Amino acid sequence: MFSDFDKAGEIWVGTGPRERHKRVTSKEKFVCPPSVTLNISLWDFHNETNFRMKLQAIDITESGFTASFETWDDTQIARMHVTWQASGDAINPDEIWDVLGL
Q1: N or C: which end of the chain has fewer CB within 10 A?
Q2: pLDDT tens string 85-99
C-alpha cells in the first residue's frame, strides 16, 4: 500500500489526518461489483505513538476497486502491505459466445 519511512513520507513523519488511495484492477471482470475484503499483511508502525487507521475498499466496480487507508493524530506508520480478495460472479468468456450465438 505504501512505504514512507525511507523517503520521510507524510504517513511516517506527518501529523493530523492523512490518507492514501491505491486503485486495484482485476484481471477479469465480474458480472456486478463483487464483495471485496482487505487484509493487512505487513504493518510497521512507531512504537511510541498510538496506532490508528481505517482500511476499506471503496469505489468498487465490476473491474476493480480503490484501497483506501486513513490515519490521524500523531500515528506514525512506516509502511503497510495489503492483500485483497474479491468474491462474486465472474464473467465466463465461453458464456459470452453463447449469448452472441457464435
Answers
A1: C
A2: 999 987 776 665 544
